[in-house]
Amino acid sequence: AQKVTQAQTEISVVEKEDVTLDCVYETRDTTYYLFWYKQPPSGELVFLIRRNSFDEQNEISGRYSWNFQKSTSSFNFTITASQVVDSAVYFCALSETTGNQFYFGTGTSLTVIP
Amino acid sequence: NAGVTQTPKFQVLKTGQSMTLQCAQDMNHNSMYWYRQDPGMGLRLIYYSASEGTTDKGEVPNGYNVSRLNKREFSLRLESAAPSQTSVYFCASSVVPGGSNQPQHFGDGTRLSIL
Predict the structure, then answer these.
(1) A43–B108 CB contact, under 8 Å
(2) Any B CB within 8 A of A2 CB
(3) Looking at residue B1, what is its pLDDT?
(4) Fewest C-beta atoms under 10 Å: which of A20, A23, B28, B50?
């Protein structure tokens, strides 16, 4: 079973629109860690944010915000007033305390149309 | 600050040829990983090394071998390349293995085509 599900394969928005990227995870661990990465067209993977399972406080960084809801096993990512430079593939990842691996979702490809 | 360095960046092989992808990190990280990225499949773990001297299989290890040469270097070898191994390969490192809030840091990837 997929531990991290990103159901949105591709999303297109017009510049300045808000967009939310969904991430649903599955784990039996009580302590775990969640991450978001960005992969721009140039191909590199850039770490954006981490969240510990025991810290449910939402976080805002400029136009980016993350909504962690343990009750629904979701860690969603919202971009406010999207820009063309936000066009990328975004990956959500899970790290469990019981293992040595990171589990990645299949990614959401975001296209921001000018 | 080089971070994670992968070589080569591009490679074309013929079916049956062998090659080794090199990865080195200069962040004094303990753990290193090899992933492949295919369209619609996300990142799939091939092998990882939680610490120097150890290696373990990931989700898709068949057709690959790895060597953790030292703390800095982790190589991936294709003994007899097959067209199904055409992919983009990423090396990553982290301070400790999964199970912490320390993220992975990725190299720029190697685009490998098998004809």
Answers:
(1) yes
(2) no
(3) 62
(4) B28
